[in-house]
Amino acid sequence: MTALRLVDIRNDAVNENGERVVTADPVNFTVAGGECIGVSGASGTGKTLLLRAIADLDPNSGEVYLDGTARSQISAPEWRARVAYVPAESAWWDERLSPHFHGRRVKHLQRLGFDSRILSAPISRLSTGERQRFAILRTLNATPAALLLDEPTASLDSTNRERVERLIKDYSKTHDAPVIWISHDTRQIRRVADRHLRFHKGRLREVLRRSRKTAKDVSA
């Protein structure tokens, strides 16, 4: 079974003054294949920086293992292809959609409410929500082994939010893919996640279902 295991992971990014961007403690937890962990917390607590550390996009300490293979043992491009990070606002390297997809067929297009004609549209004409859905489609079409999702439905209405939630859940189960899903919406976390972790005062704590008490720290 595929699993994503974090060992003392901490983002070590610094600002222009050489100061640490965030003071959150290192974290340790494992996401099993087909499992989704929801992460919440106030703005600035380190949610996005955690995902960027796992994806090895910022300077960081600790180690991450995917299916027993250490991140340090493979190249950064290969790691990011296998452990895919979807930011809240994705970058696009071509003005058209089709070059962002390999092959002629774009999988899951209709499931997110599109037909193939939209692939010829300039990205500049897409709404924020449409770009967000296409960022998810682009990622899933590359068939990653694990998903790191940063507010993937923040710009979507309820209908498209439900479409994305169902698609991610189905993909995770079908491909045995671990998922870490950042959301400010605790109701969404209850819908999509098997476990809920919350940043509080620099520490990441697991939240028990049906209780306001915290189960345990997952920070070092």
Please state how the strands of the largest beta sheet are arranged side by side: 6-7-8-3-9-10-11
Strand content: 25-35%
Overall helicity: 10-25%
Global morphology: globular
Largest sheet: 7 strands, mixed
How many domains make up the 3D coordinates?
1
The total strand number stands at 11
Q: How do the helices and strands follow one another from N- to C-terminus?
A: EEEHEEHEHEHEHEEE
Unreliable spans are none
Task: Write down the Rg.
Answer: 17 Å
- Determine and state the CATH class: Alpha Beta
Q: What is the CATH H-level superfamily?
A: P-loop containing nucleotide triphosphate hydrolases
Description:
With 220 residues, the chain is of the alpha/beta class. The chain has one domain: Rossmann fold (3-Layer(aba) Sandwich). Helix content is 25%, strand content 26%. The chain contains five helices and eleven strands, in the order βββαββαβαβαβαβββ. It has helices at residues 47-54, 76-82, 128-141, 158-175, 186-192; strands at 3-11, 27-32, 36-40, 60-66, 69-70, 83-86, 146-150, 179-182, 195-200, 203-207, 214-217. The strands form two sheets. It has a seven-stranded mixed sheet, sandwiched between helices. Strands 2-1-4-5 form a four-stranded antiparallel sheet. Strand 9 and strand 10 (203-207) form a beta hairpin. The protein is globular. The two termini are 26 Å apart.
